[in-house]
Design brief:
The protein is mostly beta strands. The chain contains no helices and eight strands.
């Protein structure tokens, strides 16, 4: 899967920053049928966790009501330079990660 992370490249210590992640994923609900009439298995991203320098700062538990290619946004406080690491898992058990860096002055 492909993800695009949007956050400031730099921030001041203590500044509230906006973090956005868009994950490319089809998000199958389990209610569609293929051309042969077989049900397409449910496969949605069901968990997204963001860690900032190892500390969990955001967690989302999703269900079949979420749109394809979900876009999530949250805010956190810039405390130190480092990485935000995003990890997610879907119903098929596939796990992926994305990483973005921020420099804090």
């Amino acid at each position: 899967m492909v993800a695009r992370v949007d956050l400031p490249k730099t921030a001041r210590s203590g500044e509230v920053i906006r973090v956005r992640i868009a994950i490319q994923h089809p998000m199958e609900t389990g209610f569609r049928f293929d051309i042969s009439g077989r049900a397409v298995p449910k496969n949605v991203i069901n968990l997204l966790i963001c860690r900032y320098n190892g500390e969990e700062v955001f967690r989302a538990e999703m269900s079949s009501g979420i749109a394809a290619n979900p876009l999530l946004q949250f805010y956190t406080i810039a405390r130190a330079s480092g990485d935000l690491v995003f990890e997610w898992v879907d119903d098929a058990g596939r796990r992926d990660t994305e990483r973005a860096a921020i420099a804090v002055a």
